[in-house]
Specification:
Layout lengths: L4 E5 L4 E5 L2 E7 L2 E6 L4 E5 L1 E7 L4 E6 L3
Length: 65
């Protein structure tokens, strides 16, 4: 099984948001993420910036508000 980690990118830094991500759903104003061990978590005012399947890495970034 592939393990995917999600990171959030800020202006000058990047931090781990969730590990073992199993699904990602685009919402009108954010993203819903499910993990292997947790239920769904909604993240408002973020967008999907990049996905690296080889590295098992998802990067989200905050919208400009």
């Amino acid at each position: 099984m592939c393990q995917v980690s999600a990171f959030i990118k800020d202006d000058s830094s990047e931090g781990l948001l969730k590990e073992n991500v199993t699904s990602l759903e685009m919402l009108d104003k954010g993203i819903r993420m499910k993990t292997l061990f947790d239920g769904a978590t909604d993240f408002a005012d973020v967008y999907l910036q990049s996905v690296d399947f080889s590295a098992g890495r998802i990067v989200l970034a905050k919208t400009n508000k």
